[in-house]
Amino acid sequence: MGIPDAIDFVREGGSIFGVFAAERHIPDIENLLFEHGSNEWNHLPEDDVRRHVGAIASGNTLAVIAASSKVDGIIGVVTYELGHKYPQYQPEGRRDSEHGYIAEAVVHPDFTGRDIGTALLSSAIRDLTEAGLREVYAKRHADNIPSKRMMEKAGMVIVDEFADPEIRPTGSRRTAVMRFVVEG
Ligand SMILES: CC(C)(COP(=O)(O)OP(=O)(O)OC[C@H]1O[C@@H](n2cnc3c(N)ncnc32)[C@H](O)[C@@H]1OP(=O)(O)O)[C@@H](O)C(=O)NCCC(=O)NCCS
Fold first, then answer.
1. 129 contacts: CB under 8 Å, gap ≥ 6
2. How close is the Cα of 150 to the center of ligand 1, in Å?
3. Which residues does ligand 1 sit against, CB inside 6 Å?
């Protein structure tokens, strides 16, 4: 029998695998985000994050997670939503169309650099585009190179960059906006 809710990536002989998140995963997702999500580029306001992750229970927040048969808890998460948050970046004629956006992306530091972030992000994008959405957005600190590389490997390209000192107190203090587009 397969893994329930499995998404189509496995790594390292099947000991690392991806699944769609359900309500029972909320505590593990919060633990990973609060333990390993904050860094000089990635600020996570606790109340907002708890609200966002808690909405996995109602289906308003969606998430894919990576787990390993060798460790407890989860080793990676990408959360995402559907809505109308970025009309200004939508292609001509599609300003009012629903699109997807990536909210949080974190991989446990013991497991980074093994394409797990890219696999999770690609799975989230696939889920959104298979639901009929044609654009998926993600914001990151302009200096966050691992995040930049992960997003590029998942097929996203930069559509904007702007000064954002209120939420980016470090480095260039700029936000980059990335987008995946379904061509055709
Ligand atoms: C961003 C993050 C999720 C990426 O996860 P991951 O599983 O390591 O991602 P991948 O292995 O798929 O890709 C990471 C890429 O960044 C590169 N990278 C990692 N650290 C790097 C560094 N210090 N300098 C340059 N490149 C770096 C990796 O080599 C890889 O690129 P490559 O394949 O071209 O070599 C992870 O680094 C993380 O959790 N960071 C902390 C939270 C965060 O900043 N989240 C992003 C919010 S937008």
1. 100, 136, 180, 182
2. 6
3. 37, 39, 41-42, 105-107, 112-118, 140, 144-147, 149-150, 153
* CATH number, domain with residue 57: 3.40.630.30
**Count of domains for the chain:** 1
Q: What is the pLDDT along the chain (184 residues), one digit of tens a residue?
A: 345 566 777 788 778 899 999 999 999 999 999 999 988 888 788 999 999 999 999 999 999 999 998 888 899 999 999 999 999 999 999 999 999 999 999 999 999 999 999 999 999 999 999 999 999 999 999 999 999 999 999 999 999 999 999 999 999 999 999 999 998 7
Cα dihedral: 158, 132, 9, 68 (round 10): 90
- Ligand 1: nearest atom to the Cα of 38: 42
Residue span of the structural domain in which 79 resides: 6-134
**3-class secondary structure, 55:** coil
Question: Is position 95 within any domain?
Answer: yes
Length of the chain (residues): 184
Inside any domain, residue 109 = yes
In a domain, 150, yes or no: no
Q: Six-digit token pair at 96?
A: 């009012």
144 domain residue, yes or no: no
